[in-house]
Amino acid sequence: MDRAHDVTDTDPDDPGGGRRARRGRLGMVVYGVVATLVIGAGVAASVARGGVTADIRSNATLIAPAAAGGGWDTFMREAQESMRENGLGSNIQVVNVPGAAGTIGLTRLSTMTGRPDAAMVGGTGLVAGVEQTGSQVRMDDVTPIARVVEEYDVVVVPANSPYQNLQQLIDAWREDPAEIAFTGGGSFDELVMAQLASAAGIEPAETTYIPKSGGGEVTQALVTGTADAATSGYLDVDDQIEAGRLRPLALAAKEPIDGLDVPTLPELGYDVTLANWRGVFAPPGISDEQAEVIREVFQEVTTTSEWQDAVARNEWNEVWLDGAEFRRFLDEQEELVKSLYKELGR
Q1: Which residues pair with 92 in a beta bridge?
Q2: Any residues with CB less than 8 A from the CB of 72 and at least 6 apart, and which?
Q3: Do residues 211 and 78 share a domain?
Q4: Overall number of domains in the chain
Q5: pLDDT tens digit string along 87-145?
Q6: Integer angstrom CA distances of residue 330 from 106, 135, 217, 224
Q7: What is the DSSP string of 279-300?
Q8: Which end of the chain is more exposed for a tag (fewer CB within 10 A), N or C?
């Protein structure tokens, strides 16, 4: 079985975004689709314009390096709403720049040198996308601002699976790594699977992984027997867990999550904590003072009631990190992702 797969124009951070679209944000998604169509032809001119206003408070261009409706788009539209409702900015537009696992958006941001009025969301999926596509533009070609939120993958099996707990699944997987077929919604889910395999003493390159484009396809693969298990964003499959179609075995989280009666992988003896984080990045060539203004705006966003509602609605975990610590975290993430792809034989 050929386990390699092409990079698509879906959001690797949240492929399909279907679950979020069903979570009361339909209006925002419709707006996003319309905005993408209207703005699309003028995006290049918009993000490359020479006349720039003072800073992000007076003229904000918020870039989502993916199509409307996915996790990155949701993040920026939630930020946009919080900024508008609380007077944290004016003339705030969200621009979608999809393609190549987020690296087209990253490349676009890297050309906006000296622009203090622009910010882009990125995260684990973008770090993976840079490695996966061999992008010439890297994370250190733009200005890191802050890590803001993260969410976690869950290991799930069909409700009728013979594997009642994680250890039973691991035992069968160890016995014949290629026989147990995993699925997931994108590159991030595959990396979680690879980290779990490595922690369990299984060669990631020997495993079978069937990529899908979101929670719906992941569920279908599991219930039809195409796949035996999945690593998937919890929010993408939680409705199927609640409906009793899927059984959660473990969360890829450092600590137990309030309200979720699912053990973490570290609790079960497997050091798997790769989180799907989202952070903010700015163009290169801005001053420290300009970067601080962008940081302050997003920090203010996180204190608003609108943002707190979004955190609860999207089941995000707030993990603010900035400055030198964020830069070190990025370096560690790049090394981790690179090592996981190497283990996968990529």
Answers
A1: 60
A2: 11, 13, 14, 64, 65, 66, 102, 121, 122, 123, 125, 278
A3: no
A4: 2
A5: 999 899 999 999 998 999 999 999 999 999 999 999 999 999 999 899 999 999 999 99
A6: 15, 16, 31, 38
A7: EEEE-TT--HHHHHHHHHHHHH
A8: N
pLDDT at position 1 over 80: no
Are 130 and 29 found together in one domain? yes
Beta bridge partners of 233: 153
Residues 139 and 164 in one domain: no
Q: Is residue 300 part of a domain?
A: yes
Tell me, yes or no, whether 258 lies in a domain: no
Dist CA 302 CA 75 (whole Å): 11
**Beta strands, E only, the chain:** 60-64, 92-96, 118-123, 143-151, 153-158, 181-184, 208-211, 229-233, 246-251, 276-282, 317-322
Give pTM, 2 decimals: 0.84
Q: CA nearest 307: which of 295, 298, 319? A: 298
Q: Specify the CATH number for the domain of residue 238.
A: 3.40.190.10
Q: What is the mean pLDDT of residues 283-301?
A: 98
| DSSP category for residue 225 | T
Going by C-alpha positions, the residue among 254, 271, 273 that lies closest to residue 199 is: 271
Q: Is residue 313 part of a domain?
A: yes
Residue 228, pLDDT > 80, answer yes
Q: Which of 251, 285, 302 is the last residue of a domain?
A: 251
> C-alpha 70: how far from its chain's center?
9
- Beta strand 229-233 with 246-251 is unpaired
Full residue range of the structural domain in which residue 74 is found: 18-151+275-343
Give strand pairing partners of 119. Answer: 62
298-326: per-residue pLDDT in tens?
A: 999 999 999 999 999 998 999 999 999 99
Tokens of 311: 């955190």
How would DSSP label each residue in 151-194? E-EEEEEETT-S--SHHHHHHHHHH-TTTSEEEESSHHHHHHHH
**From CA 69, how far away is CA 183, in angstroms rounded?**
22
